[in-house]
TrEMBL record:
Residue ranges constituting the Aconitase A/isopropylmalate dehydratase small subunit swivel domain according to the UniProt record: 558-685
Positions of the Aconitase/3-isopropylmalate dehydratase large subunit alpha/beta/alpha domain: 34-477
Pathway: Carbohydrate metabolism; tricarboxylic acid cycle; isocitrate from oxaloacetate: step 2/2
EC identifiers of the protein: 4.2.1.3
Keywords on record: Iron, Iron-sulfur, Lyase, Metal-binding, Transit peptide, Tricarboxylic acid cycle
UniProt key word RNA-binding: no
Signal peptide interval: none
Protein name (Swiss-Prot/TrEMBL): Aconitate hydratase A
GO BP terms: tricarboxylic acid cycle
CDD domains found in the cross-reference section: AcnA_Mitochondrial
Family per record: Belongs to the aconitase/IPM isomerase family.
GO molecular function, a single term: metal ion binding
InterPro entries listed in its UniProt record: Acnase/IPM_dHydase_lsu_aba_1/3, Acoase/IPM_deHydtase_lsu_aba, Aconitase/3IPM_dehydase_swvl, Aconitase/IPM_isomerase, Aconitase_4Fe-4S_BS, Aconitase_4Fe-4S_dom, Aconitase_dom2, Aconitase_mito-like
């Protein structure tokens, strides 16, 4: 029986009436996305229509998922909420704190020793509050969720931007910060601006070397890293139906890289096959009973332009394999053009590593298709010119792949099998020689390739591709190798060509596993004690943030004017900093150290207006805080792009930053700032970014009458004594303004819990 089957049946029981109520109100056929949204309204059946991109709506998600790095802060917040047990099914997955270095067995043992304190904390908190706990080595959160918890038509939130992976099973699965997860686990509604809708029609059928990964690499090239912001992407068409469930998951997963709220596919036979293969016949049967509600109304896909805000069409039969990068996941290059693009841009052509895995591509099908290339190489007398690493997605995938000989095939090609964990994808990779910061190229099947992300080296040129393409390029050792046309020289000096990959959508002998790594919580957790040592460097109980003082904010110092791309990796780096994710003060020492200072083109070097000297960003901000002076951060477009990590909002809040002013925000980061009682502001005129000077002291006027849709005024007090006023916008609604006034949403939750 599936996890939480009774909850799933309750959701399905409500679907027909809720969708019918919504269809009557909207008075038109509904997309799948609209059906799921209207079926999960907090107050039940729809009583009003909502305007896409404008209306704030309260939803009731079915479940919450957290990975170990973000779960620490989410659960530290939940511990303050005054609740005895989570209100919806919730899980914690230990996948981020395991560093790839030697190989699975050694690396996992080292991680469980080094992070024992954190794993013990997460295990005990989960046990106390009724949360399912997946132990280190159990697998990557999103693969484990797809195998065990995702279900067609469901809505879930997760404290990781790639929660969207579950769209491969027809869910609306949305990445959020820990404060949002805390709300839902505490039994409160979850607020989201009703998304706009992008429809992607897939015609034709994937063939040869082209994989589902190439679909989203193509879409990323079309929409760019912010083209999906505020939107749900819904895929449909004959090409979608012909694709595997895990292939659909890959496409949805990387929707995070275009800024999409989430992505999804309508329920079909591939999803049914996957549910049954993963021992969820009961879910498949329940879904089949209402399957007409688990996809869009027929009129929608027949005339998509009438129902979506934007429609993209891709012919899969003509789609080429792609390599995206370097340094951004939307720089899309078809493999046939890579040679000329690489030469034109001076990208290093020698590939030093090929890496397969991550939450995007670590399914059985992914491994089987890549293994077919590896087996060809062995049979044809080829060896890998690049080093080669594999991260299976879950213990179930690893065990089954090992049983079926796939892992041995990789090992025959001298590949290293790493732990079932994120590893290099999130910077948890102890790569030999990375500290030399030499210019080099790697290819991987991950989702992100920002500078420094995988190995900490700013000169590593990382390119994103499908697992089978990664295998081929690792064997060739060349970025400009096109396996569709090029040959390789084997040990006998013969010219050989790699055939197109083949693989199994699902294991022919079924999935198998001895110990999946799941720990069920106690029925009654009231007697479970959660211990956090006051001297710990890894964990720190939270103190409430102070409430707004009730006045306009004056005398704020400019901390940094960030130039260009400023992702959550730039604001709060991962890699070695992951160990401090449960200790707010310690991890705040990485605040904005990756952001480029507009005024000197350097990272982690800003002017301290109190001393006139340049120094690290965190140290400068701590000096302002010690002096009782607030500050402001200024940023560029799509500020906060990337991971959902709320540390990027909590660290500035903790250190005394009062406002973040940018040209535009990524959705999750803007929400995280609001949840923590920060001011997230945007320039009314983007050109006013150029008016911010290095020595500015800034006043924010209008807070005493802070109201929705009403701009605020910033006074820029320049060093020469002159002043300028600029208008700034915000997207706060009434509830979010109350969060600001209270000093954060959690302060309101705690206050209400105490009243109860």
């Amino acid at each position: 029986m599936a996890f939480d089957i009774d909850m799933i049946k309750r959701v399905y029981a409500n679907f027909p009436s809720r969708i019918e109520a919504a269809r009557k109100l909207v008075n038109k056929p509904l997309t799948l996305s609209e059906k799921i949204l209207y079926a999960h309204l907090w107050h039940g059946e729809a009583t009003e229509t909502y305007t896409r991109g404008t209306s704030y709506v309260d939803f009731a998600p079915d479940r919450v998922a957290m990975q170990d790095a973000t779960a620490q802060m989410a659960l530290l917040q939940f511990m303050q909420a005054g609740r005895a047990k989570v209100a919806v099914p919730s899980t914690v997955h230990c996948d981020h704190l395991i560093q790839a270095k030697v190989g699975a067995e050694v690396d996992l043992q080292r991680a469980t020793t080094e992070s024992k304190e954190v794993f013990d904390f997460l295990g005990s908190v989960s046990n106390k509050y009724g949360i399912g706990f997946w132990k280190p080595g159990a697998g990557i959160i999103h693969q484990v969720v797809l195998e065990n918890y995702a279900f067609p038509g469901g809505m879930m939130i997760g404290t990781d931007s790639h929660t969207v992976n579950a769209g491969g099973l027809g869910m609306l699965a949305i990445g959020v910060g820990g404060a949002d997860a805390c709300d839902v686990m505490a039994g409160l509604p979850w607020e989201l601006k009703f998304p706009k809708l992008i429809g992607v029609k897939l015609t034709g059928k994937l063939n040869g070397w082209t994989a589902p990964k190439d679909v989203i690499l193509k879409v990323a090239g079309i929409l760019t890293v912010k083209g999906g912001t505020g939107c749900i992407v819904e895929y449909f068409g004959e090409g979608a139906s012909a694709m595997s469930c895990t292939g659909k998951g890959t496409i949805c997963n990387m929707g995070a890289e275009i800024g999409a709220t989430t992505s999804t596919f309508g329920y079909d036979e591939s999803m049914e096959r996957y549910l049954r293969a993963t021992n969820r016949n009961d879910v498949a049967d329940a879904a089949n009973a209402i399957k007409e509600h688990l996809t869009a109304d027929p009129e929608v896909y027949a005339n998509p332009e009438q129902y979506f805000d934007q429609v993209i069409e891709i012919d899969l039969s003509a789609l080429e394999p792609h390599l995206n990068g370097p340094f951004t996941p939307d720089l899309a290059t078809p493999i046939s053009q890579m040679k000329q693009e690489a030469e034109k841009n001076g990208w290093p052509l020698t590939v030093e590593w090929g890496l397969i895995g991550s939450c995007t591509n670590s399914s059985y099908e992914d491994l089987s298709r890549a293994a077919s290339i590896a087996k060809q190489a062995v049979d044809k007398g080829l060896t890998t010119k690049a080093e080669f690493g594999i991260n299976p997605g879950s213990e179930q995938v690893r065990y089954t792949a090992n049983r079926d000989g796939l892992l041995k095939t990789f090992e025959d090609l001298n590949a290293t099998i790493f732990t079932n964990a994120c590893g290099p994808c999130i910077g948890m990779w102890d790569r030999v020689g990375a500290e030399k910061q030499e210019k080099n190229t790697i290819v991987h099947s991950f989702n992100r390739n920002f500078a420094k992300r995988a190995d900490g080296n700013p000169n590593t040129f990382a390119f994103v591709a499908s697992p089978e393409m990664v295998a081929a390029i690792a064997i060739s050792g060349r970025l400009d190798f096109n396996p569709l046309t090029d040959t390789l020289t084997n040990a006998k000096g013969e010219q050989v060509k790699l055939d197109a990959p083949v693989g199994d959508e699902l294991p022919t002998k079924g999935f198998d596993v001895e110990d999946a790594g799941y720990q069920a919580p106690a029925e009654d957790g009231s007697g479970v004690e959660v211990i956090v040592a006051p001297t710990s460097s890894r964990l720190q109980l939270l103190d409430p943030f102070p409430a707004w003082e009730g006045t306009d904010l004056k005398g704020l110092k400019l901390l940094i004017k960030a130039k260009g791309k400023c992702t959550t990796d730039h604001i709060s780096m991962a890699g070695p900093w992951l160990k401090f994710r449960g200790h707010l003060d310690n991890i705040s020492n990485n605040m904005l150290i990756g952001a480029v200072n507009y005024f000197n083109e350097k990272t982690d070097s800003v002017k301290n207006q109190l001393t006139g000297e340049y120094g690290p960003v965190p140290a400068t901000q701590r000096a302002y805080k010690a002096a009782g002076i607030g500050s402001i951060v200024v940023g560029d477009e799509n500020y906060g792009e990337g991971s959902s990590r709320e540390h990027a909002a909590m660290e500035p809040r903790h250190l005394g930053v009062r406002a973040v002013l940018v040209k535009s925000f990524a959705r999750i980061h803007e929400t995280n700032l609001k949840k923590q009682g920060m001011l997230g502001l945007t320039f009314a005129n983007k050109e006013d970014y150029n008016k911010i000077q290095e020595d500015d002291t800034i006043d924010i006027i209008g807070l005493t009458s802070f109201a929705p849709n009403t701009p605020l005024t910033l006074v820029l007090n320049h060093k020469d004594g002159s002043k300028e006023e600029i208008l700034v916008n915000h997207s706060y609604n009434d509830q979010q303004i109350e969060w600001f006034k209270a000093g954060g949403a959690l302060n309101i939750i705690r206050k209400n819990a105490n009243k109860a």
